[in-house]
Design a protein that fits this description.
Number of domains: 1
Distance between the termini: 13 Å
CATH class: Alpha Beta
Strand order of the largest sheet: 1-2-3
CATH topology: Rossmann fold
CATH superfamily: NAD(P)-binding Rossmann-like Domain
Number of strands: 3
Mean pLDDT: 76
Radius of gyration: 16 Å
Largest sheet: 3 strands, mixed
């Protein structure tokens, strides 16, 4: 399952994307890049996305996964552990801030070194 979060700054452009089946990472990246190009036509609008790897959440231990998987969750990442929400939050803050005003159509990977694409 792919997990991407797109961030747009007041973008009134509608992008219809209803795939017949689950898209692969390259299709999602192309969608974000296309949306970024459309956003450039509107001053101040940008579109970016975050592609997270395994991140620890309270849902993991409250029925999100069986206990046998929870113990190994994130262990196959190069860092050998899942990320913590506090490690992901600053990326969202950056993309929502004025400091990212020159970035559009970008997908930031936050996967503990494994690369998502």
């Amino acid at each position: 399952m792919l997990q991407f979060c797109a961030i747009a700054h007041s973008m009134p452009v509608a992008i219809n994307y209803l795939p017949a089946e689950e898209p692969d990472a390259h299709e999602v990246i192309q969608l974000i890049r296309a949306a970024g190009r459309k956003a450039m036509a509107i001053p101040g609008d940008i579109v970016n996305a975050i592609a997270p790897g395994p991140y620890w959440t309270p849902l993991q231990v409250s029925g999100g996964q069986p206990q046998s998987k929870v113990e190994k969750f994130g262990g196959d990442s190069p860092m050998g552990r899942p990320g913590q929400p506090a490690e992901l939050a600053p990326i969202y803050v950056l993309l929502a801030s004025q400091e990212s005003s020159y970035a559009t159509g970008q997908v930031l990977g936050a996967s503990g070194g494994s690369g998502n694409f």
